[in-house]
C-alpha cells in the first residue's frame, strides 16, 4: 500500500516535470499565458508528489519492510528510528530521491514568488528546473528505484530485485536488513548530505534564470538581482555541508585530519569554488556593467559541476573512501552534463553581442582588476582540483596507464594559490573602483601592516618558528587586520554621530548587510586559515603499545593507559572502550579520555571513535588501535596533537554567520527594489 | 581635425588598456598552468595492477606507485607492539568494465583470493591496522616495491564491497 502510493507519486511527479518543461517550452515563445500557468502549476505539484514518495520510503524504512531492496540495504532492526529516517539518504536510490525532493522544493518555491517584474523569464525557468528534476526522477524510476522489491524465483531459487512481480516468483522477505553503513551513523553524516544537496540544488535556480535570460534576450542584470538571494542560500548550504563533512571526517574516520582531497570532497568543493567566483564577479556587473559573459560562463560551469559532483558522489568512477556501489548511472550523468553544457554555451554564443560590457576597465590597480584576479585564482584552483580529480581517467584514456595524484599535488598547487587569494581578500576591499593610487592604498594598509609585525613575533615565541608557517601567518594576520580596519573605519564614522561602539557595529552591519556580511565571511576565512596552517604544519603524532599503567609522551603531554573494557550494547554493537588519563607538562591531571572501537555485528564492520580533549590551543586526539584479548593488559594507541584545529570550526561558524548576515532579507532594499523601475537599478544595492 | 586626433588617441589608449589586462591574465593563467604541470610531474603516481608490477620487474623498483589487490585473509599478520602489518594481496583487474563483466568487485575479490595462479605480492605496512583489513577486502596501497618483491606501503586504503549495496541478503523468513 505504502509502496504503491510512493511509486505512483514518483511516477506522477515525473509526468508533471516532463509536462511542465514541454508545456513551458511550447507556450513560452507564443506567450500562451494559460499554458504557462498550467506548466507552473505542474511544476509546483512535483513537490507534494515527491514529498509523498519520500515519506513512503521513510515509512517503509521505519516499519522495516525488508522485502523492499532499498530498505534491507540501508536499515536494520537494531537501528534507532531517527537513523532509519535518515537512511533515506544513506544509499544511492534513496539519495537520488532525496535530491529530487530538495530540487522540487527549491523549484516550487521559485515558482511561488512574485513574477510581475520578470514574467517573460518564467516559462524558461520552469523548463530548465523541470528538465533537471525530470532527469533525476528518471534515474530514480528506471535505474535506481527505491521501491524495488525482492522476489524469490520458483524455478531457479534465486532472489532478484524487481519493481513488479516476475512470473513464477514469490515475495522474499529477509528477517533483518543489513543496516546503514556504520560510518554514516553519526550526527555529522545525518545533516551533511542534506546540506550539500541543498547547496547543489540551490545553484540550479540562478542557472535556470541565467538560461532564461539568454533565451529571452533579457540579458540585463535582472536575472542576477532576482537570484542573488537564491545563490547565497545555495552557497550557504554548500559551505555548511563542506564544513560539516570536515567535522565528520575528523570525528569518525580516525586519521586526525578533516580534509583529504578525496575525489568526493573535491566534487563538493568544485561548484563551491566556481560559485564563490560567481558571487564576487556579479558585483562588478551590478556596479559597473562589466563581465556579463563571464558571469554567464561561471553560472553555467557551476551548474555543470553541481551535476558532475552528484555524479562523482553517486557513480563510484573514482576510487574513494566515499565510493558507493558501481552503477549504471554514470553514462547517463555524463550525457546529461554534456547536453546541458553544450546547449547553455550555444545560447551564450548566440547572445554574445548583447552581453557586451557597458564600460571599460581603466586601471590594473582598481577594484575591478582585483575582482578579476580573484576570479582567475578561484577558477585556477577549481581547474587544478578538477584536473587532479579526473587525472586518473584522463591518463588512462591517453596513455592506457592509470596515474593518480594525491594530497601532495593539491597542497603544492592549491597552497600557494590559496595564499595569494587570502592576501587579495585583505587588499581588494581597500582598493578604489575604477582607478586607485598606491599612495591612498598604502595609507589604508600601514596600520594593519604595523600590527602584523608584533603578531608574528608573538607567533614565533609561541613555537611557530617555521619559515613557511611564518609567511602564511603573516599573510593571514595582515588580512585579518585589514578586514577589522574596514569595520573600524565604518564604526568610527558612526561613533562620531554619538553611537556607542556596539550599536555602531550593529547599525553598520544592518545597513550594509551585503558588504559587512561579506567582511564577516572574510574574517571567518582568516580564522579558519590560522587553524588550517596550525593543524597542518604543526600536527604531531606518535603511536605506542602500552601495558596497564604505562605512559607515553607527546608535545608536553603524558598519556597513561588505565584500563580497557569490552561490553555489548542493545543495538548490536560490541564496544571496546579504553580509559586513558592525560597529564600536562607539570604532571597535573587534565583529562580522562575514552577512545573506543565499536564493532557492528550486523555488518561485521568496526568503527573507531577517538577520545579528544579539546582546548582553544590544541586538540589532544587519541585513537584506540588495538588491544590484547581479555585477561591481558596491553593496548595500542595512536595520538595526535593538533594545534589550533578549533580555529577551523570557529572560523566556520563566523563564516556561516557572515553568510546569514549577507543573505538576510533587507526590508529597505526590498522596498527600493519593488518601487524602482528595472532600468534605474543598475547601481543600487551593490558595492 | 584636432577632435579626430583626440578620439583616435582615446581609442588607442583604450585598446592599450585592454591589452595589458589580456597580457596580465594570460601571464597568470600560464603561471597556474605551469604550477599544475610541474606539480603533477613531481607527485604523480602510477596505478598498477599486481600483475603489471611483477611484469615490469626491476624497472619499477623504488618508484612511487599505487597498487590495488585482494587481501588474502590467512596471510594477515599484525604486530601491535611494533605496529607492523604484513599481508599478501592477489591480483585484481584495475579496469572497472572488466570488474563489472566478471560480476562485480565482491566476486572479483573472492575469485582472486581463491585463485592460486593469480599473481601475488607480499606487503609490509608500518602503522595502525585499518578497521577494514580482512580477507577479500580490496587494499589500495601507495608505496614502492623493493628488489625482493616486497611492497612497502606508505598509505593503505581499504575498500569492502559487501558493506555497501549490491549484494542480496541470504537469510529468508519462513
Summarize, please.
Chain A has 687 residues and is of the alpha+beta class.
Description:
The complex is a heterodimer of chains A (687) and B (174). Chain A contains 20 helices and 14 strands. With 687 residues, chain A is of the alpha+beta class. Chain A has four domains: 1-185, no CATH class; 190-422, no CATH class; 437-537 and 654-660; 540-643. In chain A, helix 5 (92-111) packs antiparallel against helix 6 (122-143), helix 8 (204-216) packs antiparallel against helix 9 and helix 9 (222-253) runs antiparallel to helix 10 (263-288). Chain A starts with a helix and ends in a 12-residue tail after the last helix. Chain B has helices at residues 2-43, 50-56, 96-101, 105-114, and strands at 45-49, 65-71, 77-79, 84-91, 120-126, 138-145, 150-159. In chain B, strands 2-4-5-7-6 form a five-stranded mixed β-barrel. Chains A and B meet through helix 3, strand 2, helix 13, strand 4 and helix 14 of A and helix 1, strand 1, helix 3 and strand 7 of B. Strand 4 of chain A pairs antiparallel with strand 1 (45-49) of chain B.
Mean pLDDT of chain A: 85
**Total tally of structural domains of chain B:** 2
Number of helices of chain B: 4
CATH superfamily of the largest domain in chain B: Nucleic acid-binding proteins
For the record, the CATH architecture of the largest domain in chain B stands as: Beta Barrel
What gyration radius of chain B follows from the Cα positions, in whole Å?
A: 27 Å
| CATH top level label of the largest domain in chain B | Mainly Beta
How large is the share of residues in beta strands of chain A? 5-15%
Assembly of the depicted chains: heterodimer
Q: Say how many strands of chain A there are.
A: 14
Based on CA inertia axes, which overall geometry of chain A fits? flat
What structural class do the secondary elements of chain B suggest? alpha+beta
Element order of chain B: H for helix, E for strand:
HEHEEEHHEEE
Largest interface between protein chains, with number of residues from each side: A-B, 72 and 53 residues
Low-confidence stretches of chain B: 1-14, 162-174
In total, how many beta strands of chain B? 7
In CATH, the topology of the largest domain in chain B is named OB fold (Dihydrolipoamide Acetyltransferase, E2P)
Distance between the termini of chain A: 56 Å
Amino acid at each position: 500500500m505504502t509502496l504503491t502510493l510512493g511509486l505512483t507519486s514518483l511516477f506522477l511527479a515525473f509526468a508533471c516535470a516532463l509536462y511542465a518543461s514541454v508545456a513551458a517550452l511550447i507556450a513560452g515563445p507564443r506567450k500562451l499565458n494559460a499554458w504557462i500557468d498550467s506548466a507552473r502549476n505542474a511544476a509546483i505539484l512535483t513537490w507534494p508528489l515527491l514529498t509523498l514518495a519520500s515519506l513512503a520510503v521513510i515509512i517503509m524504512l521505519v516499519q522495516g519492510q525488508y522485502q523492499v531492496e532499498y530498505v534491507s540495504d540501508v536499515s536494520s532492526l537494531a537501528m534507532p528510528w531517527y537513523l532509519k529516517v535518515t537512511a533515506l539518504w544513506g544509499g544511492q536510490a534513496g539519495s537520488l530521491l532525496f535530491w529530487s525532493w530538495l530540487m522540487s522544493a527549491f523549484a516550487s518555491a521559485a515558482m511561488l514568488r512574485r513574477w510581475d517584474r520578470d514574467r517573460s523569464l518564467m516559462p524558461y525557468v520552469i523548463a530548465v528546473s523541470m528538465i533537471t528534476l525530470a532527469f533525476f526522477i528518471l534515474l530514480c524510476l528506471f535505474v535506481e528505484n527505491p521501491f524495488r522489491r525482492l522476489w524469490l524465483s520458483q524455478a531457479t531459487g534465486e532472489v532478484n530485485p524487481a519493481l513488479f512481480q516476475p512470473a513464477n516468483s514469490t515475495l522474499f522477505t529477509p528477517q533483518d536488513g543489513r543496516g546503514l553503513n556504520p560510518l554514516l551513523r553519526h550526527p555529522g553524516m545525518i545533516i551533511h548530505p542534506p546540506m550539500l544537496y541543498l547547496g547543489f540544488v540551490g545553484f540550479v535556480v540562478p542557472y535556470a534564470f541565467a538560461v532564461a535570460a539568454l533565451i529571452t534576450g533579457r540579458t540585463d542584470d535582472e536575472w542576477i538581482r532576482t537570484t542573488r538571494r537564491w545563490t547565497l542560500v545555495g552557497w550557504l548550504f554548500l559551505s555548511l555541508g563542506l564544513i560539516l563533512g570536515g567535522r565528520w571526517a575528523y570525528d569518525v574516520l580516525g586519521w586526525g585530519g578533516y580534509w583529504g582531497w578525496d575525489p568526493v570532497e573535491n566534487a563538493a568543493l568544485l561548484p563551491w569554488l566556481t560559485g564563490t567566483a560567481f558571487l564576487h564577479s556579479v558585483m562588478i556587473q551590478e556596479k559597473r556593467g562589466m563581465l556579463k559573459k563571464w558571469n554567464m560562463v561561471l553560472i553555467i560551469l557551476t551548474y555543470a559541476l553541481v551535476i558532475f559532483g552528484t555524479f562523482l558522489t553517486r557513480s563510484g568512477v573514482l576510487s574513494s573512501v566515499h565510493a558507493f556501489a558501481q552503477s549504471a548511472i554514470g553514462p547517463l550523468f555524463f550525457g546529461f552534463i554534456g547536453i546541458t553544457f553544450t546547449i547553455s554555451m550555444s545560447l551564450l554564443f548566440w547572445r554574445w553581442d548583447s552581453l557586451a560590457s557597458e564600460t571599460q576597465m581603466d586601471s590594473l590597480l582598481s577594484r575591478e582588476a582585483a575582482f578579476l584576479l580573484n576570479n582567475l585564482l578561484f577558477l585556477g584552483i577549481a581547474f587544478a582540483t578538477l584536473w587532479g580529480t579526473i587525472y586518473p581517467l584522463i591518463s588512462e584514456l591517453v596513455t592506457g596507464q592509470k596515474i593518480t595524484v594525491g594530497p601532495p599535488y593539491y597542497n603544492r598547487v592549491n597552497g600557494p594559490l590559496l595564499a595569494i587569494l587570502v592576501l587579495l581578500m585583505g587588499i581588494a576591499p581597500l582598493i578604489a573602483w575604477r582607478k586607485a593610487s598606491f599612495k591612498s592604498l598604502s595609507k589604508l594598509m600601514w596600520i594593519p601592516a604595523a600590527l602584523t609585525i608584533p603578531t608574528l613575533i608573538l607567533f614565533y615565541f609561541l613555537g611557530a618558528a617555521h619559515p613557511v608557517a611564518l609567511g602564511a601567518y603573516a599573510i593571514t594576520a595582515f588580512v585579518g587586520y585589514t578586514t577589522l580596519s574596514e569595520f573600524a573605519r565604518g564604526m568610527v564614522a558612526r561613533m562620531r554621530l554619538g553611537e556607542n561602539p556596539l550599536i555602531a557595529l550593529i547599525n553598520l552591519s544592518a545597513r550594509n548587510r551585503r558588504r559587512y556580511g561579506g567582511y564577516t565571511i572574510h574574517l571567518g576565512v582568516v580564522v579558519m586559515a590560522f587553524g588550517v596552517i596550525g593543524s597542518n604544519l604543526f600536527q604531531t603524532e606518535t603511536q605506542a603499545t602500552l601495558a596497564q599503567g604505562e605512559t607515553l609522551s607527546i608535545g608536553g603531554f603524558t598519556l597513561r593507559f588505565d584500563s580497557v573494557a569490552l561490553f555489548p550494547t542493545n543495538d548490536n554493537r560490541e564496544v571496546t572502550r579504553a580509559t586513558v588519563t592525560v597529564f600536562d607538562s607539570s604532571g597535573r591531571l587534565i583529562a580522562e579520555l575514552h577512545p573506543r572501537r565499536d564493532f557492528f555485528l550486523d555488518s561485521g564492520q568496526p568503527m573507531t571513535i577517538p577520545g579528544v580533549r579539546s582546548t582553544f590551543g590544541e586538540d589532544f586526539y587519541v585513537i584506540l588501535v588495538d588491544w590484547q584479548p581479555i585477561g591481558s593488559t596491553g593496548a595500542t594507541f595512536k595520538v595526535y596533537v593538533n594545534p589550533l584545529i578549533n580555529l577551523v570550526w570557529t572560523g566556520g561558524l563566523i563564516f556561516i554567520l557572515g553568510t546569514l548576515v549577507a543573505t538576510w532579507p533587507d526590508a529597505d532594499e526590498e522596498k527600493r527594489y519593488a518601487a524602482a523601475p528595472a532600468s534605474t537599478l543598475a547601481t543600487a544595492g551593490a558595492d | 581635425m584636432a577632435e579626430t586626433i583626440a578620439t583616435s588617441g582615446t581609442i588607442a589608449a583604450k585598446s592599450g588598456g585592454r591589452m595589458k589586462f589580456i597580457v596580465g591574465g594570460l601571464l597568470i593563467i600560464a603561471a597556474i598552468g605551469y604550477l599544475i604541470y610541474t606539480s603533477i610531474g613531481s607527485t604523480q603516481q602510477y596505478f598498477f595492477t599486481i600483475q603489471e608490477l611483477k611484469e615490469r620487474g626491476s624497472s619499477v623498483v623504488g618508484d612511487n606507485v599505487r597498487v590495488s589487490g585482494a587481501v588474502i585473509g590467512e596471510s594477515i599478520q599484525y604486530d601491535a607492539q611494533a605496529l607492523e602489518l604484513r599481508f599478501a594481496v592477489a591480483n585484481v583487474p584495475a579496469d572497472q568494465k572488466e570488474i563489472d563483466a566478471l560480476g562485480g568487485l565482491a566476486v572479483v575479490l573472492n575469485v582472486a583470493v581463491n585463485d592460486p595462479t593469480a599473481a601475488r605480492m607480499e606487503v609490509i605496512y608500518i602503522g595502525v591496522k585499518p578497521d577494514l583489513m580482512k580477507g577479500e577486502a580490496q587494499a589500495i596501497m601507495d608505496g614502492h616495491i623493493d628488489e625482493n618483491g616486497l611492497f612497502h606501503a606508505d598509505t593503505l586504503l581499504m575498500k569492502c564491497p559487501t558493506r555497501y549495496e549490491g549484494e542480496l541478503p541470504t537469510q529468508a523468513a519462513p
